[in-house]
């Protein structure tokens, strides 16, 4: 019994209705695109080429139009490109970032290449009350501010705005910020490991200036991360606002029911 | 000593350079917007009104132009609105979703209101090899497919495409899917709790059809979640592709260094 036969048999049995026929082509395209997206991102098409359209039609049991629409969706996301005479090629470079262990970007992406940081701004600044309060500093206490564009193998991944407690931030500014994660430097300066971080993730459309800074199209989807990192002793020392290019990064981890 | 004096003193001491003056107005606007964004989202402006521009200029120690640009950025994200004669009002409705405990949407957002689900499609389908493989099913084994628009207090939050192992999925289709999380129903049918889920998050721009389905502007940033959920006994039974409207949801949790 083929897969399709099994479905038709189940449908004929009347227990469930196969509503495929009623579904819109766009809905089918989305289903196909979701499955292919993951395969592209996880490098399952080793040769770089996706299966031929006719094979995808058979694999997904759908129409050729829905398969073409699915490939168009992935092309709009920059994950594949259509090459006349060759077919559809996977062109994504999306890198995995863990959600569980607190790691700097260079630590996380070590196997994918070299992370370099363009330091756009550093200095001592008078923080707003909100920043002081989150770093548990008395109002009026200056903090060290660092702004970086972070690249992997030369491609912009993120724009990071970082506020640091002054006693750790001032020595940090004398270090090689272009080639080191701030996390690693902070641990060396503090003489103790980092502990816990509170993280908030959002998807936002890039404003024109942030998009330009990241060499991305205007309005591109950004994975925006706000992260407050504490030393092992519990003191909050590092507050970051990170804009990841959505087309270059995925975050993954495990969740547990209890 | 005021905050600004402290900074000027530090600068004069020559240890650090306050590079504020060299920074672009757009960079300052982004800094201000990042801090205000969080305050808006966490409801810190209880009355709904943000401080007056002059107060923000003082608070952030920046120019009036940078403050105005920051408010424009938040307005473009749909977080605030400018009301002539009143000022700038927080209008965001962004809901927190935990990253740690595996919870259904209704369980997560209980205190924020009622979650209802519009079931767009259900049925037994012949899955692609990728879906079969992730659910550890023999090739050709049909799975149950459920597609839902999920709303909080009537507002669309997400579009969920769900693939379920047949032995649990078929009984599930007889349940009240409009008013129950699939997680809760699965546990009842399986007679055991859920266990672990593997989760991947991305930020993507919505394709036109997904945007229309979620009543969102074309190209809006979506928080795209792929989640494979296992029963407590380890069997993978529920594979979901979830598109959250980026302007309605945040994800938060803790990360640990070791």
UniProtKB/TrEMBL annotation, chains A, B:
This is UTRA domain-containing protein. It comes from the Bacteria. It comes from Actinomadura litoris. Keywords: DNA-binding, Transcription, Transcription regulation. GO terms for biological process: negative regulation of DNA-templated transcription. SMART domains: HTH_GNTR (SM00345), UTRA (SM00866). The lineage of its organism: Bacteria, Bacillati, Actinomycetota, Actinomycetes, Streptosporangiales. GO terms for molecular function: DNA binding; DNA-binding transcription factor activity. The keyword Membrane does not apply. Residues 26-93 form the HTH gntR-type domain. It holds the Pfam family UTRA. Gene3D superfamilies: Chorismate lyase-like (3.40.1410.10), Winged helix-like DNA-binding domain superfamily/Winged helix DNA-binding domain (1.10.10.10).
